[in-house]
Design brief:
Layout: E1 12-16, E2 20-26, H1 29-35, E3 42-44, H2 47-55, E4 62-66, H3 68-78, E5 83-90, H4 93-104, E6 107-114, E7 119-125, E8 131-136, E9 156-162, H5 169-181, E10 185-189, H6 193-209, E11 213-217, H7 218-225, H8 230-238, E12 243-247, E13 253-257, E14 260-264, H9 278-291, H10 296-310, H11 320-327
Parallel strand pairs: 1-5, 1-9, 2-7, 3-8, 5-6, 9-10, 10-11, 11-12
Antiparallel strand pairs: 2-4, 7-8, 12-13, 13-14
Helix pairs in contact: 3-9, 6-7, 7-8, 9-10
Length: 330
């Protein structure tokens, strides 16, 4: 294992991002077109618009805690790791549900409160298991740079930041600077190609100065690097961070760690039911393995298994029997 961490005593992974509740709706391709969603992407919307889209469906959605960084941290907690999540919730039922689920997943909550509604995401899942999202940020968008304190990242080996935080540039910079001052390694998941397209101006600066672990799928890597070929895209990502991850969906993933590229094979045989949270749970397994000193190959195996298991259910909540299969790898 490459000596990546200077603080060998800590295995805490702290995540910061949007405190959101996922509303997962199974629908046909035609529903995507009628709703105006961008297939496979994310569009910001207000809560009334999301309610109107839900009103057009005769199906009952699944409601689970969400948000990219939160999904990752929930996964770390279920794996048995030390986990903390920082975000902002409303003082409503969705906010109560969100905080309760953090505790149920063995995650330490650091949640600022707002009178605004808790943020939520309508994730429309089509038969190809692709999800297209409308996001109402609500209270989650009201977190302020001054609320981010060094204590929030105390003893963290890794601070994991979701790309969606780029929509709040001042908060993103506060999180990056505070995490660096606390001596934590910084992990950034690019989150969505639409996020990369909207934030291309500042991504170079952020990755060059702060990011140690950079995680992207093929679409995000293409939007960021300009390369569609996986070897070129990974090489470009690896120039930005000590560890660069290129997720290839059903073909597995590639991890570049200080110049050494590791191919991570996919696991499982069943086709995906829903890809919601697949990348987030992949990151949970990978980061858990990393802070516990596993070789990159093993980190990738745990990550792939987490990603596979979450694709077998609706939403980002892996059932307990799935977690038992994942823990068996440890």
């Amino acid at each position: 294992m490459i000596n990546f961490f200077t603080n060998k005593q800590s295995t805490l992974i702290a995540g910061i991002g949007s405190a959101l509740v996922d509303i997962c709706l199974l629908e046909e391709e035609s529903f995507i077109t009628e709703s105006g969603a961008r297939k496979g992407g994310m569009v910001l919307a207000d809560k009334d618009f999301i309610a109107s889209i839900l009103g057009k469906s005769a199906r009952t959605p699944a409601i689970v805690p969400g948000g990219s960084a939160c999904n990752t941290i929930l996964g770390v907690g279920k794996l048995g790791g030390k986990a903390r999540f920082i975000g902002k919730r409303g003082t409503d039922k969705l906010g109560d549900l969100f905080e309760k689920e953090l505790r149920n997943h063995n995650v330490e909550p650091v949640l600022f409160l707002s009178p605004s509604p808790t943020g939520h995401v309508l994730s429309i899942i089509t038969p190809d298991a692709q999800r297209s999202m409308f996001t109402f940020l609500g209270a989650s968008s009201e977190a302020k740079p001054g609320e981010i304190l060094a204590d929030h990242f105390k003893d963290a080996a890794v601070v994991h930041i979701e790309g969606y935080l780029l929509f709040n540039e001042s908060l993103m910079m506060a999180a990056l600077k505070t995490a660096r001052e606390c001596g934590a390694k910084i992990s950034l998941d690019l989150a969505s190609f639409t996020v990369v397209e909207s934030s291309r101006r500042i991504l170079d600066e952020i990755t060059n100065q702060y990011v140690d672990i950079l995680i992207a799928n093929e679409d995000e890597a293409r939007a960021f690097t300009g390369f569609g070929e996986e070897d070129k895209a990974l090489a470009a990502l690896s120039e930005k961070a000590s560890i660069a991850v290129l997720k290839l969906g059903k073909r597995g993933s590639l991890v570049s760690c200080k110049g050494l590229v590791t191919k991570v094979d996919p696991v499982g045989e069943l086709p995906p039911l829903d890809t919601t949270g697949a990348g987030d749970l992949w990151a949970a397994g990978f980061l858990y393995g990393l802070v516990h000193g596993y070789p990159i190959e093993k980190c990738g195996e745990i990550a792939s298994t987490c990603g596979y298991e979450v694709c077998q259910v609706i939403g980002a909540n892996i059932p307990e029997e799935g977690w038992e299969r994942i823990r068996a790898l440890l």
